[in-house]
Predict the structure.
Amino acid sequence: MHELAITKEILDIVLEYAGNNKAKSVESIDIELGQLSTFDEESIRFYFEYLSKDTVAEGAELIFNRIPANAQCKKCGRDFEPEELFFSRCPFCESTEYKIESGDTVKVLNFTIKE
């Protein structure tokens, strides 16, 4: 169900830009999907197809770019790739206190429009 909300946000961003630039259609959308993101690509595709019907984004290709997660340990200060969002440990000092630096978000990176 979270995919419906994030897909609507993605579509709103694209449609606003497309409208401001008088686009006839949106051909593709590059989406950054963090490794720790809980969003499912197939669900986003499903909801996008439904939500974009009868808009300039209908039929646009969704291109997902998975990016690895990065965290910084609050105890030893070293960077590492966490395996999970909430239950990882620093591989250097075993601390469970860390800050996620990247890899937990969804972003529209770029999209191609036809004017």
User: Anything to note?
Assistant: The radius of gyration is 17 Å.
